[in-house]
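Hey, quick one: can you model this chain's 3D structure?
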Amino acid sequence: QVQLVESGGGLVQAGGSLRLSCATSRTIFRLNTMSWYRQAPGKQRELVATISTGSSTNYADSVKGRFTISRDNASYTVYLQMNSLKPEDTAVYYCNVRRPFAYDYWGQGTQVTVSS
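Sure thing. Here's the predicted structure for all 116 residues.
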């Protein structure tokens, strides 16, 4: 049973923009903080951004000022707007929701490639 469905990755030149989407169920969306992670080749998965149910946000230092996480309460979707993209942003991006002692769901991943 698919809990998180991602879309929006692709190939873009440095300086360009992409928007990632992560759609989920009403229950999951309303109860939980949602997160975006990324994993570059040969590197560990890292946290990119989080957004709470009250829309408080946190970002990795490497993306502050360039990426914006948001949530749409009508469509149960979390977005990651990525601007001023750099080649080092190239990675597979994953949506995540984790509820302690209950569940830890990951999206299927979406590839973002930034060419120099």
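One thing worth noting: DSSP finds one helix and eleven strands in the chain.
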